[in-house]
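ugh ok fine here u go
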Amino acid sequence: MKSFPSRTLSLLAFALPLLSLPAHAWEVEEIGKITATFDGEAFERSTVIVTDGDLVSPTANLFLTLNNFSSLSLLTEDGNFVIDATFMSHAPGPETAPISTSMSFAPDGNMQFWMSEGAPEPLEVTFTTLSVEGDKGHAAGSFRGVLCFADGLGAEVDPDNCRPIEGTFDTPFFVEE
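structure:
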């Protein structure tokens, strides 16, 4: 099982080129919303399903792994914002506390990131809805914490350069094994 920061980076590496292709090549369907305030500036992004012929790529997924672990990943349509939460259950509910959470944000879409990994305080993610039924589910809740600056993929964060973030999410997701 990949660690969550490396899995997030893999997803970003996959999603950024996919989502930056010409709009006519892909059908994009909005399925959910993530709203946040980062360092005093509000923004709203969507989770989506990107379709090209038979290729269907949702940006909101619950990955089931070995030993009854699962990882929820909510990636926005532009690939610039991701929330990850890991659970010790293949069917977590709103009362299931995540064993780890992480978040990354590239506000300008460039290779400079703000990340929760290495921040001086933990990211808090609270679920008001978290349900899994077959190969689909739904997640809604809120988050708050700080994100610290990292100058590129894989770079260490600067714990002296952090900004507050808080917001909400509400999205269906797809279960993948």
